Amino acid sequence: MFTHMHGDHIFGLPGMLLSLQISAKVSKQPQRRTVQVYGPVGIYNYIASSLSLTSCELSYLSVQVYELLGGSRRMQHPGATRTYSEFRHRGLQRRTIPQNADGTWTIAKAAEIETEEDAKARDAPQGEYIYAAEVHHVPKLQCFGYVFREPYTQPRSIDKEKALAAGIRPGRKYKLLKNGFPVMSDDGSRQVEPDEVLVGERPPSRSAAFLGDCFHVPSPMRALCENVDVMVHEATFLESDTGDKIDNGGHSTAAAAAKVADAVRAKCLLLNHIGSGPVTRAAEMAIMDEAESAISGRTMVQLAYDHLELQLPRTELTFENGKPKVDV
């Protein structure tokens, strides 16, 4: 998923696709490997022209390019929506996702467990919700943020001893109980309610927001970010920075990022895109101090770094010695 069409974000995409093709060729799979690409209108033309002008074929890879239609047309290049017949490419498909009435885009929807038939068909809900909305970066360039949320109907845990005492042996009925549906005891003498055998509350669905380069987060994007577990937001500047770089740079200060995270009640704010020059330890501390000073709620602040892996537990997310402390 790509947030916008600046070169430092997309120039590596054609090379990545060709590397995936080599991998697919070596693996000798009977069918083409499918890769899905999501981004602003224009990303299809960029991929198609890059592959065509460099005489590259997609012989072992099928690339589906989904462009998010609509939004601020003043931020789109006039050639982004056009179709150029000379750049049509075998193995490359152009698809679109329309904008919703609330100013967002729905990229994927989870398959929740809402009926007994759903619970019989699968152990837990499948997939995830993925939404997008615009953020403001620079004029004439559309930029997006993405939000990922797990399904809401997470199954609860079952106490096997209680289930056995209620007359239910391990089997398919456990799936129904875990997902909140009553079942008959194995001897058919009575109906067993889920609360009789389940322990704990329904696990919360986890969520994360990834905002592209931006200096302003409009209301549709803020609405998507409400109560996210983790928000990734840039912090290029400090409030004390002056001059054209902060007035016209299309980027945010650490304080501005913190205020957004605070307003949407994000549990954790991960700051990336740090600084506009060499990042020293002193510069990192200044970014952290400014962000934490702008937080009025309980949002935790942490600096992102290369190769950071953050696991999201279903319990409280905490940090210890600058590193995520995970208790899954």
β content, as a range?
15-25%
- The H/E string reads HHEHEEEHEEEHHEEHEEHEHHEHEEE
The coarse overall form would be: globular
The largest sheet has its strands arranged as 4-5-6-11-12-13-14
- Derived structural class: alpha/beta
Oligomer: single chain
The amount of helix comes to 25-40%
Radius of gyration: 24 Å
The largest pleated sheet is described as:
7 strands, mixed
Query: How far do the termini sit from each other?
Result: 27 Å
Low-confidence stretches: none
Mean pLDDT: 89
- Number of distinct helices: 11
State the total count of DSSP E strands.
Answer: 16
Model description:
With 328 residues, the protein is an alpha/beta fold. Helix content is 26%, strand content 23%. The chain is built from eleven helices and 16 strands. The strands form five sheets. The protein has a seven-stranded mixed β-sheet with strand order 4-5-6-11-12-13-14. A three-stranded parallel β-sheet has the order 1-2-3. A two-stranded antiparallel ribbon has the order 7-10. β15 and β16 (323-325) form a beta hairpin. α10 (254-263) runs parallel beside α11. The protein starts with 6 loop residues before the first helix and ends with a strand. The model has no long low-confidence stretch (mean pLDDT 89).
